[in-house]
Amino acid sequence: MNLIRMKNRIVKWFQNERRKTAAMTPRAKAAYVWEYYKVPIVAFVSLVLVSIYLASHFVTAVRDHWVYIMFADTRAEAGNGSELWKGYVELTGFDLSEKAVDFNSEAWFDYAKDEGRGNRYFALFCGLTDEGVLDAVTMEADSLEGVGRSGRLMDLRDERCRKIYERYKDRLIYSVPYNTEYSTDPVPIGIDISDSALVTKYHLYEESCAIGIGAQSTHIEAVEQFLEYVMCTTGA
Questions:
Q1: How many C-beta neighbours within 10 Å does residue 156 have?
Q2: Which residues of 133-152 are buried (b: 16+ CB within 10 A; e: fewer)?
Q3: Per-residue pLDDT tens for 210-223?
């Protein structure tokens, strides 16, 4: 019965929209649809793109990851095969024939500006994080603090992050989560690494730089190694 009612409502809505646009030119119809339905359209397209990416990623990937790190909102080359990537792989000695080391530097979203609304890269970030693929993300500190409110970054007081927390507790970035049931107080969700090689050597960011760990990450040790690498590597 509910399905029949839903079907009738959809048919009635469709007929009503047809009457509204019957006398419009094709351009006017397109403008009308975009004006009134751009939010669901953008949301749907973002969902489709994320679904396609994840499906392609999981279908074509033969191996698991040693680590997956996203470098958001940077024009610098930091993806797979970059000098940053090569240095990290050499340091860790990860066997790439067994698992992959993925660096993604093609994500553009400044959460501090618009909270990622309608941004397909932010939708990708959410999808990768919720699926447990993303292990860490870097961006400017203000933007990371904003992302931390969403609950998609790990609380660094978690026992799994104990070593990281203890080593970098004087660099912690805090955020008050939207979910007040979790906490109404600031939660440590990131680490300020503005003096790291990401800024001083590889120039991913001009001044401010911070890193957060994905809430569902299972490769905390690999993130710890990455932190050691960028904090110990020097040079211009």
A1: 23
A2: bbbbbbbbbebbbbbbbbbb
A3: 999 999 999 999 99
pTM (two decimals):
0.71
Sheet harboring 210-213: ordered strands across?
100-107, 65-72, 136-139, 210-213, 187-192, 172-175
Check: CB of residue 110 under 8 Å from CB of residue 143. Answer: yes
Question: What CA–CA distance (Å, rounded) separates 69 from 79?
Answer: 9
Residue type, 191: I
Those residues whose C-beta lies under 8 Å from the C-beta of residue 102, and which sit 6 or more positions away, are 65, 67, 68, 69, 80
Q: Which of the two residues, 233 and 114, has the higher pLDDT score?
A: 233
DSSP label of 155: -
For residue range 117-131, what is the model confidence (pLDDT) as tens digits?
A: 667 888 888 889 999
Total residue length of the chain: 236
Tokens of 112: 């501090």
Residue type, 122: F
Query: How far apart are the C-alpha atoms of 208 and 99, rounded to whole Å?
Result: 32
| Alpha-carbon span 14 to 8, nearest angstrom | 10
pLDDT at res. 60: 44
Asked if 176 and 187 touch (Cβ cutoff 8 Å), the reply is yes
More reliable by pLDDT, 138 or 38: 138
- What's 158's DSSP letter? S
Max CA distance (Å), the chain: 69
Per the CB < 8 A criterion, the answer to whether 49 and 120 are in contact is yes
